[in-house]
Design brief:
With 350 residues, the chain is of the alpha+beta class. It has helices at 10-18, 62-72, 75-78, 115-128, 228-238, 248-259, 266-278, and strands at 86-91, 138-145, 156-161, 163-169, 175-181, 185-186, 205-211, 283-289, 295-302, 309-316, 322-329, 341-347. The chain has a nine-stranded antiparallel β-sheet, covered by helices on one side. β8 and β9 form a beta hairpin. α4 (115-128) runs antiparallel to α7. The longest helix has 14 residues, at 115-128. The radius of gyration is 19 Å and the shape is globular. It starts with 9 loop residues before the first helix and ends with a strand.
């Protein structure tokens, strides 16, 4: 069974979690109806299963929802989007003082700078840093998305298994997407998992998809220009809610979808930051180290679709580029506490 955790009430999702069977892989009971607008999945699998990729975040309009739901039913979008990591459940191999099912939240230090100041500083860094000369039909990401098996209280520890995804594609919509196993680590403290675990070794190819001409379902086939209008139109193609009055959450969601297929220039990223600045709802959370150890400024916005979540956007303090995003719960749910990390994606890790 595959459902979208953002489309269920807390009570419904809590009941689902408590009834999951960790000993078997549940077969899917069918693909979502396109009109249901179900685009992000909560996967259920055993410790050795490979989870499918998660489709891009859904936009609020029915038209966009139908398009993305249709895309979910194709093999193309399944390999383009933000990556799904698999939570593996193992008997406790080391003392664990508390049950940990998701990655530890980012450790934030205070920032006295305003949103305007942080964006201004990022744009200065973007002008000084090297970057691609033109937008690239290429995406490289390290990502993880929550999958949950029932965890007997106090008896298990969750293993976080990120996946590394490379997508290269062409103007004729041909290309290739390869998903590889990342380096697994324990949720409780972030330490590397022992080599004796049964999961795939880091670097193992999990999915290798070749797209014939016309086979890739791209949101936008041609690279954007460098103006604010160009970038707004480019992001709107990836998130139709921007056709209305966009919020900061909408900008972050559109950026996440766009970065699943494109690598933008520094100037184009600067324009994206200006769009974020002008949209209501963004704030500065502080400075942190991201999942790959890079120092980042963390911006946040409450999710425009679901008040139980907030979205984080990570901006490198070195280059000024947008290098990651995360989704975090704002309310508790069963064993998931406030602040639980539901997903993350990192870019520019090559």
């Amino acid at each position: 069974m595959r459902v979208d955790p953002r489309q269920l009430s807390d009570d419904e999702l809590d009941a689902l979690i408590l009834t999951l069977d960790p000993l078997t892989t549940r077969a899917s009971n069918g693909r979502p109806d396109p009109d249901e607008d179900i685009l992000r999945e909560l996967g259920v699998g055993t410790a050795t299963s490979v989870a499918p990729h998660v489709a891009p975040r859904r936009a609020r309009s029915a038209r966009s929802g139908r398009r993305r739901a249709r895309a979910l039913m194709t093999a193309t979008i399944a390999t383009m989007a933000m990556f799904v990591g698999v939570i593996l459940v193992w008997p406790a191999l080391a003392p664990a003082p508390a049950l940990a099912m998701t990655p530890q939240p980012l450790i934030l230090s205070g920032s006295a700078s305003s949103l305007d100041q942080e964006i201004d500083m990022a744009q200065v860094r973007l002008r000084a840093a090297t970057g691609p000369d033109t937008a690239q039909r290429h995406s490289h990401s390290v990502g993880w998305y929550l999958q949950m098996d029932h965890l007997p209280s106090g008896q298990t520890s969750a293993l976080i298994s990120p996946e590394v995804y490379d997508l290269q594609w062409n103007a004729d919509l041909s290309g290739r997407g390869i998903t590889r196993a990342g380096v697994p680590y324990w949720a409780s403290d972030g330490t590397s998992a022992p080599a004796s675990t049964d999961g795939p070794a880091p670097g193992t190819i999990l999915v290798d998809t070749k797209f014939p001409p016309g086979g890739l379902d791209a949101f936008v086939a041609e690279p954007p220009g460098d103006s604010a209008e160009d970038l707004f139109d480019f992001l709107r193609a990836h998130w139709s809610a921007l056709a209305q009055k966009p919020t900061a959450s909408d900008i972050i969601s559109a950026t996440t979808n766009a970065f699943a297929q494109w690598t933008l220039t520094n100037q184009q990223q600067s324009e994206v930051l200006d769009l974020l600045r002008d949209a209501p709802g963004a704030k500065v959370e502080g400075v942190a180290k991201d999942r790959s150890g890079r120092e980042v400024v963390v911006l946040s916005a409450d999710d425009a679709d679901n008040p139980n979540f907030k979205n984080l956007l990570l901006i490198s303090t070195n280059t000024g580029r947008i290098v990651g995003e995360e989704s975090v719960r704002l309310t508790p749910l069963g064993d998931l506490p406030i602040g639980a990390v539901i997903s993350y994606t990192l870019w520019d890790t090559e």
